[in-house]
Amino acid sequence: MSFWFTCGGMLAVTFGSRLSGLTLRMRLPAFWLRFLHFVPIAVFAALVTPSLQGSRGEGGIRVAAAVLSGVVAWRTKQLALAIAAGMVAFWLLRLLPG
Amino acid sequence: MPLWLGVVPFGLAYAVIARDAGLSLIETQALSLLVFAGSAQVSAVGLFARGAGGLEVVLTTFLLNVRHVLYGMSLARRVPMTPRERVVGAYFLTDEAYGVSIARDAHTFPFVLGAELSLFITWNLATLAGALLGGVIPDPEKIGVDFVFPIAFLALLVPLLRRRADVVVAVVAGLVAWLLSKWLPGGLPVLGAGAGGALLGAVLTRKEPAE
Questions:
Q1: What residue in A sits closest to B142 (Cα-Cα)?
Q2: Sorting pLDDT into bands at 50, 70 and 90, what band is B139?
């Protein structure tokens, strides 16, 4: 049940933002325009780090595979390619002894 | 259209992550049909997996999606729309649809709606395919599917880093979230580091010209 409350809340804030821009006449101060530019950067970065280490003592190889995945994302800008490279590197590094 | 090509892997990744986070097929699809906001949906399922509360998920969604106010204001200035068209146009508005509508000269409501609906259909089909795929992966824990979380967000983050301030904000927000996650449960580290990081960026760039 709590999922559907959360889903309803997400719908409300998302649709509310989209509709208010299309219907209301207003101007945002420059400071908040710059704030909005940095929101996805800060949120995505904040989602990466807490889950990077994992819970099975594989922190080292997970960080190494993530670095490789980040380099692929930087060079290619292809989401699917970066995720695939990171997962394959992770699986290969796990196979190494030690 | 190349626009759709970018949406498909994103939608697949979202749905696989959502299923791994414990969402059912219906719930995974419902977010794509009702909320229809890629980065907010991926963030939400990432937060669900961390055991975040509903309020934390909704606040993070708001933080991420309040930028749509800007798209709406910009579109409303260029495209004449009736009140009913505004409601329909708002429901399906996304970053990509806004980008396409602004880039073309054809500033009419049918063009905007066509761009929006093509993305909505592609996003939902990719969600369905990913949700079915995510449901049949055997023993997801053992093959380390949870590692998709950090690298998917990393792959979303990296192309956004264009200026020095972008990199500073990403590093600080990442470090703060990592430290906070040792003491605070659920979605609070993400919400705190996200809002704090964006504030830091706005302060750091106060002397730079707007993009």
A1: A56
A2: low
